[in-house]
Design a protein that fits this description.
The protein contains 20 helices and 11 strands. With 614 residues, it is of the alpha+beta class. The chain starts with a helix and ends with a helix.
């Protein structure tokens, strides 16, 4: 499919006239900067060829790799290799109850996989697999320095948040004026909105002479760079010049203001309890945005799994016809699931199902008539397990229960995503999601420290938190791989992190219409792949008829073909000006960098605490 997309773009998209000021990175020249053996292996094994003229040729895109793109490309390929190796090793180890029970053959298979990928393994996986080798073998392996230990999509191009030229993160931004609160949806990411913050009026040169410099609280959210007003000498004049009007400085919201609003706000007892919980235990870096969003937007909180859309735990609902209506955050009380036993001795695996009728309608199949979907049905039994209190129904469908603490974490993430959209920090869905996810994980980690266990999380969230705490490098790889998958695609591997995408857009600014066409075609293919993948899962658990799934897959294929024909006959125009997009991506790069900085500081504090404890 990728070859077809690129071929269509190459044949039908006409490049625009290059601008004189546009920068285009030259092709990477392996003769000038020779590649080592690992880089050659990564490239040649993943659809790239090394030409005699020194260029690295992308066989799929039929183009040479740009010099500026090579570091990110190599890091991404190394990350994919590391993740693939860990999944292969996991497939071997999980056949047994304990690693001690591995047969000699399987143990040697694990040793071979580790040896082959030792160079791309970081500190944590190397430490985990050391018991598989003798001291002599480890001495030889330790001579190999790790390469591409961290995925550059997270840390390579984003600047440090405390850089003297970097803009303040959302925590340092002023409060958005209360008079501007429309909630406008975006087409690309349903969970995030597009909001254009207030921009200060242009001050004439005459007025600027005597007008006092604006206070930091009156600088608009859109003004990202830290501006230090110059000292202007006094000029004698007999005519008083009236300074340009400035908006009223918004009051700074304190924790007490937030608590008072929540106590008197339009919330149910359950919703108020969740807001109070996250207000007291959310990480410090996100508290200012949390306070501003809750008090400024007054998001409503409902507990209804049928309104969470394709999401299983939480969703965001807004009234498009009434943009001034406060958004509604929906929380699922518990997952609806079916259990399938694969093999004679295998354990049962749970498959979670969306409740929303809209989600099933998008798949093109009817929602199964399960007892767990009907609120009036009486369960045949109730049992406690990893998914909390589980109600078991006569047709073997089940409904679990999310704990109050897990719902609080999901609510925190949704509020922060809402706030980032409101204040214009969502140009990159990946950066916004990473920032909000970091806050949720730190919130859960704090609760884990208080309780001494993680039973308040469901099995999936428990695994996510454990991987994030103990195997950060591997969890980053897995997260980016899943976010780049067809079912989600929060992260676009063709563009990289926000600042890498910004640099790419600047290089291709002269041909943005062609780039928009490629993005639209890829998105059409992704929607089809997502639909087909979910249908295959539903067939596997015997929830839908194979004939119905086949018909839905044909419809998805026809829809993609129609979209492809429409797009190629009438290519989309550039969505926004390059300046606005570049500024939005720069702001997104800041929050991605802050998320990385906060995580790093937390891990360092934990290491210091462990060392003091010993």
């Amino acid at each position: 499919m990728t070859c077809v997309v690129i071929a269509v773009c190459a044949l039908l998209a006409t490049p625009g006239a290059p601008r004189a000021a546009a920068y285009i990175s030259p092709a990477y020249d392996a003769k000038i900067a020779p590649l080592d053996d690992l880089s050659r292996e990564l490239l040649t094994g993943n659809g790239y060829a090394l030409n005699e003229d020194g260029r690295v040729w992308d066989k799929i895109n039929e183009s040479a790799v740009a010099r500026d793109d090579m570091p990110f490309l190599l890091s991404r390929l190394a990350s994919a290799r590391r993740l693939r190796a860990l999944l292969q090793i996991n497939a071997v180890i999980t056949r047994y109850d304990s690693e001690k029970n591995l047969t000699p053959q399987d143990k040697e298979a694990v040793r071979e996989l580790v040896r082959q990928n030792w160079i791309v393994f970081g500190i944590v996986p190397r430490r985990d697999f050391r018991p598989y080798f003798s001291l002599q073998e480890l001495e030889s392996l330790d001579r190999i320095p790790p390469r591409f230990e961290k995925m550059s999509a997270v840390l390579m191009t984003d600047p440090a948040i405390d850089s003297p030229t970097a803009a303040p993160p959302p925590t340092a931004l002023p409060v958005v004026p209360a008079t501007v609160k429309p909630w406008l949806p975006t087409l690309s990411t349903p969970e995030l909105g597009v909001f254009r913050p207030w921009t200060p009026p242009v001050v004439s040169s005459a007025a600027a002479v005597t007008a006092p410099p604006p206070s930091p609280a009156t600088i608009a959210v859109a003004t990202v760079a830290v501006v230090t007003p110059p000292v202007v000498p006094a000029i004698a004049t007999t005519t008083a010049i009236t300074p340009a009007p400035q908006p009223p400085a918004p009051a700074v919201l304190t924790a007490a203001d937030y608590e008072e609003f929540v106590a008197n706000g339009p919330y149910s007892k359950e919703g108020r309890a969740l807001l109070e919980l996250i207000g007291k235990r959310a990480p410090d870096f996100c508290l200012p945005l949390l306070h501003r969003t809750v008090v400024g937007l007054i998001p409503q909180i409902v507990f209804d799994g049928s309104r969470t859309g394709a999401s299983l735990r939480a969703g965001l609902v807004h009234d498009v016809a009434n943009p001034l209506t406060p958004p509604t955050i929906t929380l699922s009380p518990g997952p609806v699931m079916v259990s399938v036993k694969k093999g004679l001795f295998a354990e049962r695996s749970d498959t979670l199902l969306p409740e929303s009728l809209q989600a099933w309608s998008e798949l093109g199949v009817a929602r199964p008539d399960l007892d767990a979907f009907a609120t009036e049905k009486t369960p045949s039994s109730v049992e406690n397990g990893p998914w909390g209190s589980v109600r078991v129904y006569p047709d073997a469908s089940r409904r679990g229960t999310y704990s109050t603490f897990e719902q609080a974490g999901e609510l925190l993430e949704q509020i922060l995503l809402l706030g980032l959209a409101q204040e214009g920090f969502n140009s990159s869905p990946y950066a916004a999601r990473r920032w909000a996810r970091t806050a949720r994980l730190l919130f859960s980690a704090r609760l884990q420290e208080e309780f001494g266990q993680v039973a308040f999380l469901d099995p999936d969230r428990r695994t996510e938190l454990g991987g994030w705490r103990d195997r950060s490098a591997e969890e980053d790889d897995l997260t980016i791989a899943s976010w780049a998958g067809s079912r989600v695609q929060i992260y676009d591997p063709r563009r990289g992190p926000p600042l890498a995408e910004r640099a790419r857009n600047q290089r291709q600014d002269s041909d943005c219409s062609r780039e928009a066409l490629v993005a639209s075609l890829v998105e059409a293919a992704r929607r089809r792949a997502r639909r087909v993948g979910i249908l295959e899962t539903l067939i596997e658990v015997k929830l839908i008829d194979p004939n119905s799934a086949k018909e839905s897959a044909k419809i998805a294929e026809a829809e993609e073909a129609t979209a492809r024909a429409r797009l190629t006959s009438s290519p989309p125009a550039c969505a926004t000006s390059s300046t606005d997009r570049a500024e939005g991506l720069r702001r997104s790069g800041l929050i991605a960098a802050e998320a990385a900085r906060v995580e790093r500081a937390w891990r360092e504090s934990k290491r210091e605490g462990d060392s003091h404890a010993r």
